[in-house]
Design goal:
Strand content: 5-15%
Order of helices and strands: HEEHEHEEHHEEEEHHHHE
Low-confidence stretches: none
Radius of gyration: 18 Å
Oligomer: single chain
Strand order of the largest sheet: 1-2
Largest sheet: 2 strands, antiparallel
Number of strands: 10
Number of helices: 9
Shape: globular
Structural class: alpha+beta
Length: 215
């Protein structure tokens, strides 16, 4: 509030850089901002752990709709499974940054090696609750102790390589609990959005409120 950045920092910086606007459709779902196919799903998780995207749009997109469509594109890609990877289907989906049998990578439809990370579908729960809850149930029931342990789901798995991550990575697992809570009660969103500087920021950038989705 004392030394605010000008709105131009957002429009000319973050949103003004090349690659922010997309405007293409994938599997029938339009993506207004973000990389091809939406990129790794963590893009849509960390950005909205606190910021509530519901009912909000700026000059570029409705951010809830955009995040929901990116999540659905990720699931549709895994159903389509153009790489023919083992285990991909409507219940086993979710490409994001995680360990894999050969190291660590930001997995996405354009960077896919057969590795599914449970955090991807679970942290999309505010956007795709039915699909995400079905994925949670499926992964827990099908893989049991191979994928579930003391701290919840292990980092990732790759059936083609007969590999399950031996442990957990906090930065990968981190969005799961807050995003489940945002789906359940919206509490993390409520706490963050109650900060007084948020409303002024939104006015300066030019956010509008709209209701154009079913929630």
């Amino acid at each position: 509030p004392t030394y605010p950045m000008p709105a131009s920092s957002y429009h000319n910086g973050w949103a003004g850089v090349g690659g922010y606007y997309n405007g293409n459709s994938y599997y029938g779902y339009p993506i207004w901002v973000g990389p091809a196919y939406g990129g790794p799903l963590f893009f849509k998780h960390y950005s909205t752990l606190g910021f509530d995207p519901r009912y909000k749009r700026d000059a570029y997109t409705n951010y809830f709709e955009n995040a929901r469509n990116i999540s659905l594109v990720d699931q549709a890609y895994c159903i389509d499974n153009p790489g023919g990877y083992a285990g991909y289907d409507e219940f086993s989906w979710g490409l994001t940054a995680s360990f894999n049998p050969w190291g660590y990578s930001a997995h996405s439809p354009t960077n896919d090696n057969g590795t599914i990370a449970p955090t991807a579908a679970l942290s999309a729960m505010p956007y795709t609750p039915d699909e995400s809850i079905a994925a949670l149930r499926h992964l827990y029931d099908l893989y049991g102790a191979s994928l579930w342990g003391t701290y919840g789901f292990r980092d990732a798995f790759n059936l083609g390589a007969s590999w399950f991550a031996p442990g957990y990575i906090a930065i990968d697992e981190g969005p799961i609990a807050p995003m489940i809570e945002n789906h359940r009660t919206g509490r993390c969103w409520q706490l963050f959005m109650s900060n007084p500087e948020i409303a002024g920021m939104m006015r300066a950038i030019g956010f509008d409120y709209e209701v154009d989705y079913d929630s």
